[in-house]
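User: Can you recover a sequence for this backbone? Please restate the input before giving your answer.

Assistant: Of course. Working from this structure:
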């Protein structure tokens, strides 16, 4: 069946090959590049596969080679509100957000898809490395490039109008195919940094928007060990850059254990104090039938992070995830994505974490 397909073209090799495959499959494909900044020079520069002026030009050239119509859509205001401002607000609240996850949720599979459907398109095609099989979201065959984690915030209704042509292909194969197709982006490097932080200085970016606010760095007993200029500059599990006045009595390194925006306090302690045995997630999104009883599965707690055996069950509006072995450095604000094999069951935003002692105490 021929579909009207809107291909989101970032300017990178993945989205270019995905669009080419959709066109080759006989679909009526139109390419679109999303302009995400009203002042592109305020974002990073250079062709990096997403979000720059050079990337827009690369996307247009790829569309010309493929032979499909191409447009640039201005989504700067929506991106600033739903991704950039959300990023700042989450850090201010003591959480560690994933802006790429939020961009997929709010921009590519909400704003873009809504507009595409309103214009009569049947599906949105992207270069994500993930698979859709019988309506289910599954991991890519290239586990090193798998992006099912950042897509797990999408709803079943959104995925019903999604197309991921690269899920059965490794990244090396994508590059070779791009070269065969004459796409100039075949050797273009992947994008790894945050597109709206031009110099990569996240701490400086946050300081400009949140301002300096001195606070205390304490240990678990409350003893003051140092001072900081803003709790937002720290993340759970951080070891370097703590600027402590003195070493631990046993000489072992300290790590960030907790961030309290209310008291503007950062708590540090030994590495083993980072162990998390239970996670509570909020705003669960189910890609299959919602769980109604404890279910043994696996959970991934950050993009390209380790996967843990667990038991998960909804309790009211909270998804409770009990880990079979402890995880370390679990940050509130990240997504907890549940898997059954390579199939995504659902996701939730990490709202609270508990050690073995607090779990046993009935937390």
């Amino acid at each position: 069946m021929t579909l009207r397909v809107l291909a989101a073209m970032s300017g990178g090799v993945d989205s270019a090959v995905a669009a080419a495959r959709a066109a080759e499959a006989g679909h009526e494909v139109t390419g679109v590049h999303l302009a995400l900044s009203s002042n592109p020079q305020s974002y990073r520069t250079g062709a990096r596969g997403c979000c720059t002026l050079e990337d827009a030009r690369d996307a247009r050239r790829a569309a010309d080679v493929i032979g499909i119509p191409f447009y640039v859509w201005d989504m700067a205001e929506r991106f600033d509100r739903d991704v950039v401002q959300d990023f700042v607000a989450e850090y201010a609240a003591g959480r560690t957000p994933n802006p790429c996850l939020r961009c997929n949720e709010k921009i590519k599979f909400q704003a873009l898809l809504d507009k595409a459907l309103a214009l009569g398109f049947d599906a949105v095609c992207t270069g994500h490395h993930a698979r859709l099989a019988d309506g289910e979201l599954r991991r890519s065959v290239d586990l090193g490039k798998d992006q099912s984690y950042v897509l797990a915030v999408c709803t079943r209704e959104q995925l019903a109008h999604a197309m991921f042509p690269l899920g059965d292909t490794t990244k090396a194969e994508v590059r070779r195919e791009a070269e065969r197709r004459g796409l100039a982006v075949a050797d273009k490097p992947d994008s790894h940094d945050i597109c709206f932080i031009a110099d990569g200085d996240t701490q400086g970016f946050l300081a400009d928007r949140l301002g300096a606010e001195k606070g205390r760095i304490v240990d678990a007993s409350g003893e003051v060990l140092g001072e900081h200029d803003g709790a937002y500059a720290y993340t759970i599990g951080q070891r370097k850059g703590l600027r402590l006045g003195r070493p631990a009595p046993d000489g072992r390194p300290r790590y960030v254990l907790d961030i309290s925006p209310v008291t503007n306090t950062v708590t540090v302690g030994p590495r083993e104090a980072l162990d998390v045995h239970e996670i509570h997630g909020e705003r669960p999104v189910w890609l299959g039938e919602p769980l109604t009883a404890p279910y043994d599965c696996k959970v991934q707690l950050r993009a390209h992070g380790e996967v843990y055996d667990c038991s998960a069950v909804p309790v009211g509006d909270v998804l409770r995830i009990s880990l079979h072995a402890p995880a370390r450095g679990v940050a509130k604000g990240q997504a907890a994505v549940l898997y059954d094999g390579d199939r995504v069951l659902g996701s939730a935003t990490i709202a609270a974490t508990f050690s073995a002692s607090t779990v046993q105490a009935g937390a």
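That completes the design. The chain has a mean pLDDT of 90.
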